[in-house]
Amino acid sequence: MTTPLVEQTLGQLASQIPGATRLFRDHRLDFCCGGDQSLRHAANVRGLDAEQLAERLAEISQQPSQDTDWNQQPTAALIAHILTRYHARHRQQLEELTRLADRVEQVHGANPACPRGLGDFLAVLGEELDNHMQKEEQVLFPMLEQGYGAMADGPISVMRYEHDQHGDALERLLELSHGLQLPEHACNTWRALYRGLEELHDDLMQHIHLENNILFLRQ
Question: Where does the Hemerythrin-like domain start and stop, copy by copy (predicted)?
Answer without folding.
Answer: 79-216
